[in-house]
TrEMBL record:
Residues 1-20 are annotated as: Disordered. It comes from the Bacteria. Residues 106-159 form the PAC domain. Gene3D superfamilies: 1.10.287.130, Histidine kinase-like ATPase, C-terminal domain, PAS domain. Pfam families: HATPase_c (PF02518), HisKA (PF00512), PAS_4 (PF08448). This is histidine kinase. It catalyses: ATP + protein L-histidine = ADP + protein N-phospho-L-histidine. Its EC number is 2.7.13.3. Residues 30-75 form the PAS domain. InterPro entries: HATPase_C_sf (IPR036890), HATPase_dom (IPR003594), His_kinase_dom (IPR005467), HisK_dim/P_dom (IPR003661), HisK_dim/P_sf (IPR036097), PAS (IPR000014), PAS-assoc_C (IPR000700), PAS-like_dom_sf (IPR035965). It comes from Eiseniibacteriota bacterium. SUPFAM superfamilies: ATPase domain of HSP90 chaperone/DNA topoisomerase II/histidine kinase (SSF55874), Homodimeric domain of signal transducing histidine kinase (SSF47384), PYP-like sensor domain (PAS domain) (SSF55785).
């Protein structure tokens, strides 16, 4: 009889899908591979039963939270033990995993849990129920992903966007303020001409002349400040021009005068008189000065000295140095100073983009920037720029 005849049953082959031997083989192989599969996952994974007791955990989970794999099996999940009692989950303090055992619905949540070092980390926890044949929750699989760095990056990006918007707003306000300042200045000049035509007692004439001179001086000072804000807030895509580095340094220090006075920072400007102008984008060059000076001022929270120095290097190069006597930069942070988004400041006080952008601007102008620092002895940023370079065409 032909083997395919329906009258003769075919012998079962373990390799044929659906056979009992095959299922037994697959279950055995899966049981042996399951721990390795868990360990292959880069996120921290823990599996708990419906009562909240740990069934399995991968290596990442154990190493992250400093746990003993053998010791936690069969015991309450380390991350949800506060809601487990000897009789099971308590109804009023149930954690997310215990809620899933009742609701049978997957959940995702953000949790702040310390790692093995005790440092608070932010985790995105994804919890999924595994149902048995009766439709009841048999297991809960928890996947814990460390999103601390991502959260900080998002916060820094958001802060950077706010700073950019603030720069645009400052430039717009400066432009609007310039109009009434121009009217005030015109009125003061008109009053000065009128004062020259009328006859007043000498003392009154002197007093009026002094008041008008003071008004003119302060109005022009306000206009200079708004002009500096306009230059600082302008986009880097402006056309290159001849930039007076000494003037840009003085303007930057003038804008920072309030911050330096508040933090008791003494400012020294050692500006070379024979400094040639350089070909570049003025807004970008002023941005470099502002970033470096701001970093120096912020580093001296308890006061100190900020030195801004310019020098002429031959016929075609200039040097700019920004030096402070703050706490300095740690050796392990020195090489990372130029990395985008690297910052030692708290979120909201720094984006980690300032030095990265500064380096890009200097490079696009054909220059170089380097930093030297010793802990406790401050830091010095040295910028060399060609006087007739590319003009920052790639900014």
């Amino acid at each position: 009889m032909h083997p395919s005849s329906p009258d003769q049953p075919l012998p079962q082959d373990p390799k044929i899908e659906g056979s009992g031997a095959s299922r037994k083989f697959d279950e055995q192989a899966m049981g042996q591979a399951f721990p390795r599969l868990l360990d292959a996952i880069s996120d921290a994974v823990v599996v708990a039963d419906s009562r909240g007791n740990t069934v399995a955990a991968n290596r990442r989970f154990l190493e992250t939270f400093g746990l003993d794999g053998k010791a936690i099996i069969g015991r309450p999940c380390p991350l949800s033990s506060t809601c487990i009692t000897s009789t099971g989950p308590t109804p009023h303090t149930a954690c997310i995993a215990c809620e899933i055992a009742t609701t049978k619905q997957a959940r995702r949540a953000l949790q702040v849990v310390p790692d093995v070092t005790g440092r608070q980390r932010r985790w995105e926890a994804t919890l999924n129920p595994v149902l048995n044949d009766e439709g009841q929750v048999h297991l809960v699989v928890e996947v814990w992903r460390d999103v601390t760095d991502r959260t900080q990056l998002e916060a820094q990006l958001s802060h950077s966007e706010r700073l950019a918007s603030l720069g645009m707003l400052a430039a717009g306000v400066a432009h609007e303020v310039n109009n009434p300042l121009a009217s005030v200045l015109a009125g003061v000049e008109s009053l000065q001409r009128w004062l020259g035509r009328v006859t007043l007692p000498p003392e009154e004439h002197a007093d009026a002349s002094e008041v008008l001179s003071l008004l003119e001086q302060e109005t022009r000072r306000c206009r200079e400040t708004t002009d500096k804000l306009l230059l600082l807030g302008q986009p880097y895509a402006t056309k290159p021009v001849w930039v007076d580095l000494n003037r840009a340094a003085r303007d930057t220090l003038a804008l920072l005068s309030f911050a330096t006075r508040r933090q008791r920072v003494l400012v020294r400007a050692e500006l070379a008189e024979d400094l040639p102008q350089l070909w570049g984008r003025e807004g970008a060059v002023r941005g470099v000065l502002m970033n470096l000076c701001m970093n120096a001022v912020q580093a001296m929270a308890n006061g100190g000295q900020l030195t801004v120095r310019t020098l002429r290097l031959g016929e075609d190069r200039v040097l700019l140095e920004i030096e402070d006597d703050g706490p300095g930069i740690a050796p392990d942070h020195l090489n990372r100073s130029w990395d985008p988004f690297f910052t030692t400041k708290p979120v909201g006080q720094g984006t980690g983009l300032g030095l990265s952008i500064t380096q890009r601007i200097v490079s696009s102008h054909g220059g170089r920037i380097r930093v030297t620092s010793e802990p406790g002895k401050g830091a010095r940023f040295t910028v060399t720029l060609p006087t007739q370079g590319s003009g920052g065409e790639s900014v």
